[in-house]
Amino acid sequence: MLPGLLVYFVFTFIPILETVRTSFYRWDGFSSQKFFIGLGNYARLITDNVFLSAFFHNLVFIIFYCIIPILIGLTLASLLGRGKLPGMNFFRTILFLPQVISMVVVGVIWRWIFNPTFGPLNLALNALGLQHLTRAWLGDFTLALPAVGSIAKWVEYGFCMILFLAGIQRIPEEYYEASSLDGASSFQQLIHITIPSLRSEIGVAMITTIVAALRVFDLVYVTTRGGPGNSTLVAGIVIYRAAFLQNQTGYAAAMATVLMLIILAISLIIGHFQSRNEELE
Asked: For the whole model, what pTM was predicted?
């Protein structure tokens, strides 16, 4: 384990400590002069409406990154995990494909799909006689955030599906056979057998997808760059702007530190409840 630990220590742990240290200074990121201001950056953060609004958008993204993908993943896993449809491996591969594509590539593809002039989505709506539904999807102040969120949902459900498929493989088939003899429907089997047996996998999926929602940057940057206005602005974009465009490295470090602590707290809370459930079992 030592080589991996060494790499983690040099490229992850030390930069984290340096970020936390920098958050107590006012620094432009270039000059050799740093001014210690203590908790000044954090005090500023509390009243920064731009950052608070951006973080709220991250919380909204949890719906698209976590809740919806988990529901879709459970549904698909229950169908593909126990069904005997021909070409099952093909369907699994196709459904998982969005997860392995680079998020930058995903953003470029969906920016083309949502294009108001020549995008396939609006062209399809026009062909179906639904011209009144066409929109500048990524340029609409109301729909831009759900539009970007729908892209995240398309990416994340494949990860949840594969994770749940792996968990379903270890559920004894006798449970389903016995419930069928008692007259349980497929939906009842999903609620009372599949989901309780997948608590560990659901916990892993929740932690992974919530972290992805809170630290999202590349997808938003490629598709909208936080626009129109600030309607899709997320914390990662605000941190990027502060550090590299506004030369406020200390303040950016404070925002990054707060975001890291929130992610860590959520991960620990979910892990705690997951451990308690396993102990009760």
From this structure: 0.91
